[in-house]
Amino acid sequence: MTDSATLPAINRRFCAAPMMSWSDTHCRNFWRMLSKETVLYTEMVTSGALLQGDRQRFLRFKTAEHPVALQLGGSNPADLAECARIAEDFGYDEINLNCGCPSDKVQSGKIGACLMAEPALVADCMDAMRQATRLPVTIKHRIGIDEMNDYDDMAAFVKTISDTGCKTFIVHARKAWLKGLNPKENRDIPPLQYERVFQLKAEFPELEIIINGGITSLEQSKVLLEKVDGVMLGREIYSNPWLLSEVDREIYGTGAQKLTRQTVMEQFIAYCEEQLAEGTRLHHLTRHITGLYQGLPGARQFRRTLSEQAHPRTAGIDVLKRALEHVYAVDNNPTASLL
C-alpha cells in the first residue's frame, strides 16, 4: 500500500459523475483531453462483478485519466474491503460507494439508494474499506428515499457515516422514490432541493460536501460553489462535453492556453488509432464525442455520420474524418478555424 502521507490531494471542486454505460475508460480519456483538473468517476462496478469477473475489463484505465475514482456498488463489508484493496493495487485515486442509484436491479442486490435506510450497515462498509486502503473512501447518496423525507433523516445518515472517518459526501439533491418511479424518472421528477445540501454543509462544516443534480453550466456551478465545496455534473457534460474545456480556467484558475475543438480532435484521432490497433471497435470510441459540436453548423451531419457509419467492425478512422468534414468545411462553416 502507498503511504497516505504521499498521496496527492484530490481537488473535487468540479467532478464528472459516474454514469452507467457512459463514463467508461474511452469516455474518460476524451474528457481528460478537455480538462486536466476535473475529477473523473468510473461507471459503478458491483463488488460481485469485480471479485468474480474480469478485473482487467472492469478496472483498466490509462494514466492520463488521473485523478480518477472507482465507484463501487455493494453492501458486504468484507467484499467491499477486498475491492478497495484491488482498486488501490490498480492505481485508482479514490473509492466511492454508491448509495444513490434507485434502479430495481441494484435494489435486489442491496446496492444503491436503498442503503440509505440502513445507515449502520453503510457505516460498516465504509469502515471496512477505510481499514483496507489508504485511498480516500467517499460516498454518493440522495437527500432521502421514499418516506425518509426529512432533512433530519439525511443529517442522521451523514453523521453515522462521518463517524467512520469519511470526510467527503457527494449529495444528489433529489430524493429517490424506490417504488413507483424508474431510474430515468428519478433523475427528473423528484424536485431538486439544493437548500438541503447547503444546510448539510452549514451543519457539518468540517465535511467536504459535493452537490449533484440538475447543474447545467459553469455559471451555475460557480454560484453553487459559494455554498458547497464542489459540484458534480453528469448528463450535461455527456451531451455537451465542450463545457469541460473551460473548467480548468473558470473553476480552478489554471489552463491559460485556450483549447480548440480541432486540437482536441487531433488528440482523439491519435487515441482512436491506438485503440483500433488493439481491437476496439470505432463506435465504442466515437459514441462519446457526438455532442462536441453541439449548436454549431454541421453538428447534425457530424452526429449522423458517426451514428450510421461507426458501427461496422471494419469501420476505421476514415469514418471519423468524414464526420469531421461536415464541421470543418469552410463553405459550410465560416467559423471553422475557431472550432
Describe the 3D structure.
This protein is globular. The model is unreliable at 334-339 (pLDDT under 50). The protein folds into 2 domains: 4-250, Aldolase class I (TIM Barrel); 261-338, Up-down Bundle (Four Helix Bundle (Hemerythrin (Met), subunit A)). The chain has 16 helices and 8 strands. α4 (77-90) links the parallel β3 (68-73) and β4. It is of the alpha/beta class and 339 residues long. The chain starts with 13 loop residues before the first strand and ends in an 11-residue tail after the last helix. The chain has helices at 25-34, 47-52, 55-59, 77-90, 104-107, 119-132, 151-162, 183-186, 194-203, 218-224, 235-239, 247-250, 261-277, 282-286, 299-309, 317-328, and strands at 14-16, 39-46, 68-73, 94-99, 137-142, 168-172, 208-212, 230-233. The longest helix has 17 residues, at 261-277. Strands 1-2-3-4-5-6-7-8 form an 8-stranded parallel barrel, surrounded by 5 helices. α6 (119-132) runs parallel beside α7. One of its GO terms (molecular function) is FMN binding. Pfam families: Dus. Belongs to the dus family. Belongs to the Dus family. DusA subfamily. The active site is at 101 (proton donor). The record marks 98, 184, 187, 300, 303 as: Interacts with tRNA.
